[in-house]
Amino acid sequence: MTSATLHDIEAQQGAIADYNFAYLDEQTKRMIRRAILKGIAIPGYQVPFASREMPMPYGWGTGGVQVTASIIGPDDTLKVIDQGADDTTNAVSIRAFFARMAKVRTTTHTAEATVIQTRHRIPEEPLHEGQVIVFQVPIPEPLRFLEPRETETRKMHAVEDYGLMHVKLYEDIAQKGHIATNYAYPVKVKGRYIMDPSPTPKFDNPKMHRSEALQLYGAGREMRIYAIPPYTDVVSLDFEDYPFEIQHFEEPCALCGGTDVFLDEVILDDQGGRMFVCSDSDYCEDRRAHGHRGSLSPDILDGASADGDKEGTEA
Amino acid sequence: MNKAHTSDHLPKSSLVPPRPMDLSEKPLLQVRSVSKYYGRRVGCEDISFDLWPGEVLAIVGESGSGKTTLLDCISTRMTPTSGMVNYRMRDGTMREVFRLGEAEKRFLMRTDWGFVHQNPADGLRMTVSAGANVGERLMAIGKRHYGDIRETAADWLEQVEIARDRIDDQPRAFSGGMRQRLQIARNLVTGPRLVFMDEPTGGLDVSVQARLLDLLRGLVAELGLAAIVVTHDLAVARLLSHRMVVMKEGRVIETGLTDRVLDDPQAPYTQLLISSILQV
Ligand SMILES: Nc1ncnc2c1ncn2[C@@H]1O[C@H](COP(=O)(O)OP(=O)(O)OP(=O)(O)O)[C@@H](O)[C@H]1O
Ligand SMILES: [Mg+2]
Ligand SMILES: [Zn+2]
Questions:
Q1: CATH fold for the domain made of A3-236
Q2: For residues A36 and B23, what is the distance between their CA atoms, to the nearest angstrom?
Q3: Chain A within 8 Å of B145 (Cβ-Cβ)?
Q4: A16-36 pLDDT, tens digit each
Q5: Mean pLDDT for the stretch of residues B112-133
Q6: Is-contact A235 A165, C-beta < 8 A?
């Protein structure tokens, strides 16, 4: 949601009381819940739904917002992240939207949230039973890039005709010597449907496997919902001689010293200075609050030793 | 295309090795009273024949006679208006192909059957490499070892006379003849028992045609493939097929061993067709 639309809503203060709980009318929510239930019953299968206009442009997570709006209740606590961060415009806007439209509590702490809406990441802290993670999905069809015909891809899913998916991975290896797909890395859900995990880094793929949390995926523009129920097998596609691997980082987070986490590169100056920091801002802050330090923490620069120095630099 | 010219450089009697006969054999494919109507127009009408393992059947006839319609009906690319097609599966059971489930049908089409299109672009993925084009069927049947898939693809490129080092090139970078040979490799990699071909040499110039025909003839004999080849070029039928079906206005008007039909045509229409095409 752009700040302009927020202001528009603000301007209609008087009318706000007329909005239904969580913005969508009850009939629409029921329709979306039916799609979600069907998705849960057929893990990884793309369920069509009648996507509604939302007060934000496509590409801002209208699919995810509709899913969240349909499942959220007054007792829920909502966390919204974009690329792992709670404080980006997109995340702030969506959080504000639900704070206003559903009067729910919001949080930045992964463990406190009952519903987490996300774009491009799964939190580092393992999700637990009872939590729901809602993904914003731009393109739900993993076969799209090689077979543009929707009639054909639907048939391919129906009869499990998935040779094409490996053609893409084969081409990666033939051209680059390894599977070069780093985001939206295709997975097979419960041994049946091939699914696009949305543009999360493949680093997050293992977190989908047998996750305790319910995973819901909403594609607004393409009008598709799909789901992975808790404790479901999710396997990343690969070849026997080129097994699936997650991204590896050479050094720990410069702020909290965290290893085995997904790092973002941050440019510090125009002299080529850069650092790597946790993409999950809540995780990083939490570690720092518990006394962990990275190589660029202020007190480390003053001479103390960083976590990463003790733990070595291999991620 | 000038058919008289095409046939000039071709031998006058069949070079097709005789189909190995085994009296205990049962037909591989049975076509029974297949008809296809486009509205009121006849596509093909009341066609029946058997095809035996390792046998190559040519379907010939002038443009519009129903060759492609018949081929598409038999290969399940199209549903006939009426009639039946039975196929002997690898386990020996005879199955009605239009009663197969979609998944079974697809499995059959990517393992036991092949389809070579006249236009290679219809049978290839033009934006992925030659290796992936050949490897796709292997991956579709569950092969998951990259090195093995690549090695098999390279071997097949060699078999169809494409240099191994072209394995990472896209078919867009290939000549028409190479594309057609790539399409053949893509189809044969899973060891099918039956291959359908619609004018496989159609878009190619004469010298390229001759080379492709040689290659096809060799592969078909070597692998013991059964094939149904649609062509309006009698020279292609002569070179490739054991048996011929002559079509006119959607119906079969003559059928028999290729040499017999070409050297001693019975139906007046076949006589006309042959005299107009195979004149010396
Ligand atoms: N999709 C279609 N709709 C209507 N009529 C069709 C269609 N396809 C073919 N026909 C008609 O069916 C008849 C047989 O056509 P078909 O394409 O099978 O002939 P063919 O022997 O393959 O000809 P060619 O040698 O030119 O490829 C023709 O009269 C043709 O006009
Ligand atoms: Mg035709
Ligand atoms: Zn950190």
A1: Rossmann fold (3.40.50)
A2: 60
A3: yes
A4: 456 788 889 999 999 999 999
A5: 95
A6: no
